[in-house]
Amino acid sequence: MLKQLILAVLAVFSVAVFGNAGENVQIGKDGLHVQSWFFDSKGDIRSALQAAAVADKNLVVLFEQNGCVYCKKLHEVNFAKPEVLTLLGDKYLVVQMDMWGDGAAKDFNGQEMTETQLARKWGVTTTPTTLVLNASNPFAATLAETEAFRLPGYLKPFYYHSALDFFASGAFESQGFQAFLADRVAVLEAKGMDPELW
Predict the structure, then answer these.
(1) Among 35, 60, 103, 106, which residue's Cβ finds the most Cβ atoms within 10 Å?
(2) d(CA 124, CA 99)
(3) Which of 135, 153, 171 is the last residue of a domain?
(4) The model's pTM
(5) Of the candidates 27, 58, 73, which has an alpha carbon nearest to the alpha carbon of residue 137?
């Protein structure tokens, strides 16, 4: 029953809000950019990972900070691309955390701390940092048991999308990222498109 309810809410949620995420991005009280499609985890990462697993998705934990120029660019440029939004909506739940926040956070083992303490524990040193967590182990007790990879800093939309798709598509099981990216660049260039401007 709970699984069906979560799936129904996520389906409606995805359809309703993923249309114009890059337009008119708002700033919250904490100074972070607000996206209506972010999953409200109440800081509980373990519950968020389990919700992602129930929805047959993986989890993205996005660390940002107030005044971050590249966080702004991520929201206004990357999240304005329909291809990026579709991939995130179809394959991931996205949780936002404040690298310097004093909001409550709960790690996989149930340990309570602030967002800042969680960022420090997880080795997050820059913003934005995108952590991709594999929800196939929804009862992971540590980050090491679920982290697929992380993207420290800003990547242009083509590269950001490619990194997320590398994991979501399962391509990581049969090839390295460099080969995967080279194939995608070749396809784009064959169409006369520049990945830097995608």
Answers:
(1) 60
(2) 8
(3) 153
(4) 0.85
(5) 58
